[in-house]
C-alpha cells in the first residue's frame, strides 16, 4: 500500500497546524499559570485579614488608614482633608488616598 504524495503533503500540513496550536496553548498555559500565581498571592495576603482586623485597634499610628492596614498590613496615617457637604470631617490616607468621612 502506498500513500499518495498529496495525502503525505496534507499530513505534513496538519502536523504544522497541530504544532502551531500546541505553541499557542503553551503560551496560554504560561499566562494562566502567572495569573494563578498572582491570585494565590492575593488570597494568601487576604487570609491575614482577620488577624489584621483584630490588631487594628492596637495600631499605634494616629488615625490609621483601615484600607492600608487590612490589605497590606501597613500603618499609614490619615490626615484631615476638609469637610463634606454636610460639614462632616473627611480624612484622607497619605499613602492610598482612601477617604473616610467622620460624622460630627
Ligand atoms: Zn491607605
Ends: how far apart? 93 Å
The global form is: rod-shaped
The major pleated sheet works out as: 3 strands, antiparallel
**Global Rg:** 28 Å
Strand content: 5-15%
Mean of residue pLDDT values: 94
Commentary on this structure:
The protein is of the alpha+beta class and 104 residues long. The chain has helices at 5-46, 49-55, 66-72; strands at residues 78-83, 89-93, 99-102. Strands 1-2-3 form a three-stranded antiparallel sheet, with no helix packed on it. The longest helix has 42 residues, at 5-46. 6% of the residues are buried. The chain binds zinc ion (ZN). The site of zinc ion has 8 residues, from α3.
What does the secondary structure layout of this molecule look like, with pairings?
Blueprint: H1 5-46, H2 49-55, H3 66-72, E1 78-83, E2 89-93, E3 99-102
Antiparallel strand pairs: 1-2, 2-3
The protein binds zinc ion.
Zinc ion binds at residues 65, 67-68, 76, 93, 95-96, 98.
Summarize this structure as a short list of keywords or feature phrases.
104 residues, 3 helices, binds zinc ion, alpha+beta
In short:
This protein is α+β, with helices and mostly antiparallel strands and 104 residues long.
